[in-house]
Amino acid sequence: MMQSGLPRPTTRDGPSKIPPPGRPLQSMPPPNSTNMMPPPPKPAGTLRTSRSNTNLNNRTSLAERAGQSGKHTGKSIGTPAPMGRTPSVNRGTANGRPLGRSNSSLGVRPQMTPTPYSRPASAQGMQDEGEYLFPEGGGARDSNFGMRMKDTSDLHSKLAHHEAEIRELKSMYMESRQESSQNKDKEIQWETQRVTLEARIAQLQMELETYRKRAAELERALEDERRDRRSEREDAIRKLRDETDSMKRQHQQQVDSLERKWRLEMMDEKANRTREVQSMQNQLAMEKQRIEMQMEGTGRESRSLKMELDAKIAELERERAMNNTLRDKISETDSLSLGMESTTRALRARIETLENAGQSQANDYAALERALQEQIEKNKITEEKLRNEEIIRRKLHNQVQELKGNIRVFCRVRPTLGDEATHAAEIRFPNTDGESTEIEFVGAADKSALGKETVKTHPFQFDKVFGPAAQNEHVFEEISQLVQSALDGYNVCIFCYGQTGSGKTHTMSSQDGMIPRAVHQIYAVAQSLKEKGWTYRMEGNFVEVYNENINDLLGRVDDLDKKKHEIRHDPKEQKTTITGIETVVLENPQQVNNILNHAQNTRSVAATAANERSSRSHSVFILKLIGTNSVTGQRSEGTLNLVDLAGSERLAHSQATGDRLKETQSINRSLACLGDVIAALGSGKEGAHIPYRNSKLTYLLQYSLGGNSKCLMFVMVSPMQAHLSESLTSLKFATKVNNTTIGTAKKVVKA
Ligand SMILES: Nc1ncnc2c1ncn2[C@@H]1O[C@H](COP(=O)(O)OP(=O)(O)OP(=O)(O)O)[C@@H](O)[C@H]1O
């Protein structure tokens, strides 16, 4: 049978005070006043058995252990002694069955092995921190803190011991239950003990709970305290750091000031040393100078003595040389005087010769001067002759022009362009061997009633006929005589007449047309006439006549068809002016290209898609040539008019309507007026009315058409079969003009 014992309350004055004999006591925390429990009521008759005594002894031993351990409070914390004997639930059975109920049925924790209790790490840490922050201890706060620490550790040790006691009681209880099963009689007693024990356990658990709460409170307080300590410590560290920094700064300042001071001292020292060295150098230099001067004085003395000696020697030498020279000179002078006498004689002879030559040269000069005067006289006569010849040339030139007719007509057939060749009309040039003056258009074949086929030809004759191969260069050769007439002071008019596309603009104002070529020739001739005393001023105008209005092609584009220009005639001076137009003084022949480009640009801006402006208006390039002769005082004013007429399509053929019809009517009217004027001029009647006023064009050209002018008309012909009808009309008109003889032209020359 196993020993078992009943637990007893751990009161000081209870039976638990009696220690069991021969049983070692283990450390137990002493019960304090709070966990004092009244002794449980003693169950009657149950404690008399030896086993009961043993149990009682065991209990006493437990109480004593608790009392002993109380003496070691705070020293055995964390190492609670193991229980003296671990009660086993399997130790004994009354009737082969396990004794008592299971632990769980009693509400006791099933863990039977006591767990060693350790003080919380936080409590240990606080102690360490306290030692670190307050190594010397002391102060009311520190003592409070220590007390609290002590209380905490006491509580923890008490808790540990209570837990151990509870575990032991539970174990004893279990043993008791086992034993009670063996003894039914003891059951009541055991039951009573059990109740008592359970009450005790409950009480102890309550105490335990109270301790736990207290321990938690204390831990919280400790945690607060630790936080406060930490912040104090951080403050202290910060303060220490600030102090250290400030000390460092002070130290640095001291170091800096010491360094500055040391540097200044060093600099002073260095300056003193430099001064000393300088003064020593000066002394040295002075000493050196003094020694050098002494040496120099000595050297100078010896040098002057040597120089004196040398001078004496040189003087001696010189005197010796002089004696020799004098001796030589005396002999030389003797021979020279002999030579001079002979030279004087020769010179006298030469002077006589030169005097004779000068006389003959003077005679020559006089003869030359006479010859020069004779030559100048001859030159004057020659120049006079030249001028007279120039006058004669002009007269002859004019007579030639008059003989040729003051109005001449040239015909020009343009070449076929691109694929036009296949649709060309048949044109013949019968007399190409000599002067080409004839042209023949072959018409369509006609069948007579008898079936005979006849081909009608249309022959024409003009002053000159240019075939398709003729270039502008060849054409200009023929008209350059008229340009010369303009320079000689005549009014000249060159027209280009023909249907649209027949080559009028190509002939007149293309890059190598009549206008640029005429200007170049005028410049060249004016240049050559300079030696005959003539200087020329050239003024250019470029206008168009469109719908019987005058437009300035050298003016602003915006003014076209808006600005009104009037034609003014001065009958006395036989001069024509147009109001409000630009006049360009041509300084060089290149300027003419600018004029042509400007006019071309103005006309293309004014053109519309349906209306090619250049075809629908007459353009007139007017070049005034004012010449003065500085020798003879003569003055001449000629005007060269280069006129590109509008297309001469017949109204019916053009099928024009609206504005185009108006344009065409206007063009035809003005061309008809031109024909009328030429016809009237050709009638030869003195004082006959010439209808210049009937159109703007004829009115503008009044002084260039008529007795005082020379006129050339180009009739331009298209080579196309389709244009045959128009071509014939143009050629017929030109023939009429060609048959007209205008009276003798008079040049405008004023004395
Ligand atoms: N002799 C020629 N050699 C080569 N091409 C020519 C010749 N004559 C005229 N042409 C060409 O024929 C075309 C028509 O000529 P141009 O414009 O001079 O005719 P136009 O009679 O002035 O016409 P418009 O009345 O419309 O102004 C142009 O392309 C031009 O270069």
For the record, give the distance between the C-alpha atoms at the N and C termini, rounded to a whole number: 185 Å
Strand-residue proportion? 5-15%
Helix content: 40-55%
CATH topology heading of the domain at 405-418 and 458-750: Kinesin
- What's the count of strands? 15
Order of helices and strands: HHHHEEEEEHEHHEEEEEHHEEHHHEHE
- Shape from CA axes? flat
Structural class: alpha/beta
Nearest-integer average pLDDT: 76
Point out poorly predicted stretches. Answer: 1-138, 745-751
Please give the radius of gyration in angstroms.
78 Å
Report the CATH superfamily of the domain at 405-418 and 458-750.
Kinesin motor domain
Number of helices: 13
**Mind telling me which CATH architecture of the domain at 405-418 and 458-750 this is?**
3-Layer(aba) Sandwich
- The CATH first-level class of the domain at 405-418 and 458-750 comes to Alpha Beta
Biggest sheet details: 10 strands, mixed
Small ligands present? adenosine-5'-triphosphate
What is the element layout, followed by pairings?
Blueprint: H1 50-71, H2 121-133, H3 140-182, H4 186-404, E1 407-413, E2 426-428, E3 438-447, E4 453-461, E5 464-466, H5 472-487, E6 491-498, H6 504-509, H7 514-528, E7 534-546, E8 549-552, E9 567-570, E10 575-578, E11 584-585, H8 591-606, H9 613-616, E12 618-629, E13 635-644, H10 651-654, H11 658-682, H12 696-700, E14 709-717, H13 724-738, E15 749-750
Parallel strand pairs: 1-5, 1-14, 6-13, 6-14
Antiparallel strand pairs: 2-3, 3-4, 7-8, 7-11, 7-12, 9-10, 12-13, 13-15
